[in-house]
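Changelog note: in this version the structure field was regenerated for every chain. One regenerated record is shown below for reference.
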Amino acid sequence: MARKILHSIAVLLVALGLFQNLKGSDDVRIIELNLRHMTPVNAHGYLMPLMESFSANVNRSSFHTGEIHKGFEIYIGMKAITAIIPDDHRTFSAISPASNSTERTATVVGDQGNGDFPDGFNWKVVPIMVPQMHIGNVFGTQLFVRYLPTTKFDDKIGTIDVIGGGITHSLSQYLPEIPLQFAVQGLYQYAKLGNILEMNGTVYNFIASTRFAGLTLYGGLGYEHSDINIRYYYSPSSEQSAAPDTATTRITFSETFEEHFRATVGMSLQFIIFNLNADYSFGNLHVATVGLGISI
């Protein structure tokens, strides 16, 4: 397990390079064109891994310590968050529009499509990168803000918007003489992926940490709930027609993701005002995070 975590962190560090060139990508546009020829049932199966991984990314990495000091404190940083795609998310059972038979084919993160269905993008991970801020403290309570205006990335995810907020409240202030720091956190977040996907999510975390000089070891247990809305235009032609019909129908459907139990382990290193943190979350999807910020 430790080896898998280290491997995932290494993959995430490589993925950070994807964000250095903000010229954009055609991937989301290709997804929109692929959806144009998919019935809602097939579109749901095709997009399911992207919906779940995007939801997991947005809902993770909202803390890197359970300690809330007295007096003014602020952290401003960037989090690179990557969902690890499991093998069973790479294919789904689609219904052929021609024969009405069931075929196994690639999801959006899979490899080669079957028959009338498009190829996937062969993604091993789905990364996003978001800035966030923690500011406080009033009565042991800290404000959490996460905001990313419409930003077009170079690979995989196209344009995304993220805005969210919440509070983190210290429990340790009521429990003196305990070597661990405890806190609870509640968040609400909204995110959008291109013109395809919109998400509303709520997250509740119980956080624990301990500090040794500049090194903090932290962990948390969380509950998260996300409502995903998908919108696309459908042309009632063959699923992979090169020339779509001019008549299109606006298709919308929703999906809910809920994790009643999700665990996170990580460590944070403070050097003067700089903070480097990394963690790994275990849940329906495993998610690795690296963050870098300024903490004063």
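Spot check on this record: The first strand starts at residue 73 and ends at 84. Residues 75 and 95 are 49 Å apart (CA to CA).
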